[in-house]
Amino acid sequence: MFPFLSDLINYFLGTNIVLPFPMFGFMVAIAFIIAHQFFVLEMKRKEENKLVFSFERDVVKGEKASVTELLSNALFGFLIGFKLLEGILHYDKMAADPQGFMLSSQGNLLGGVVFAAILAYLRYREGEKQRLPEPIIVKETVHPYQLVGTMTFIAAIGGIIGAKLFDMIEDIPRLIDNPIDVIFAGSGLSIYGGLIVGGGAVIYFAKKKGLSILHVVDSSAPALMLAYGIGRIGCQLSGDGDWGMPNDLPMPNAISFLPEWMWAFDYHNNVLGINLQQDFMQMGLESITGKAWPTPFYETIMAFIIFGILWSIRKKISAPGVMFSIYLAFNGLERFFIEFIRINPLYDVLGLTLSQAQIIAILFMTFGVLGAIYFTKKSTSIL
User: Fold this and answer.
1) In the structure, how many helices (H) and strands (E) does the chain have?
2) Percentage of the chain modeled with pLDDT above 90
3) What is the pTM of this model?
4) 353-372 per-position pLDDT tens digit
């Protein structure tokens, strides 16, 4: 396993470098960057097809930097300098536990003050260079795809909050026993919580900007699926606890040419420092080999396949809302079945024993199918 990016680099290059970049966080960042590009491509295509439209906004030119801007830059600079200089001076400690270091109160006051002064001064100088005797208001054309960066950022922040919130709700006893560890742990993220909260925040932003909600979510659907698959690569490489149930079954001869880890894996040296054999025993699960189903790997494959389907049919679907509905249905279908070999708390729902993810997956599939039917009929009736 490769808890940190440097572990992977050292594995391939035979080096011994130490970089404070968690593998999962690194892959999530890559996922957002790549998803952003595909989101932009779709928004550009929809604007070219006159499905979404640019708009004008008033922009004030020539004003000096406001007190609020100077203070916000100073605060941002202080936070960077406070942690950066301390990290440089105590690199080994920071590299060993970057997340714990970032969330701690440990820092360098001098570094914070210096960086605060630098960023505040730079903002002041920028304002002075652009300053005019009399500020003017100019019209600026904004294309929808230019807002994708902001929407991606909103999705990232909302997604992290939602993912952590839903994870805490899923296991209340664990939260009560160790609230600090659960809240600030880098692992333990619910993808559906991230999707619901992050997606809701993006929809609110798009509505405030006067964009067509249906066309925005349709444009995001392939990108969301691709980002999910890339994020799961991070889960697999770091071993963040998303592995499946024990798998002691022998590898079928039909797929014996594949690496064994694709069938069953022990996730040695995982980022959580967990021994799967002992972990299974504590949960009352029997395992001879101490290996689990590599569910993150399976989800990556399925996500990439679904992305390929969505990307290939996007130009063939004209009814707004249908693409996102298909995404919801595929998303729910994939997650519903993978949950059967994952370890998650189960709930009794209408006589069925399901995990939180399966309950949400059923809702996604239902809304997806009904949405595809509804939006198709709605578009046909308009025509």
Assistant:
1) 15, 4
2) 68
3) 0.84
4) 999 889 999 999 999 999 99
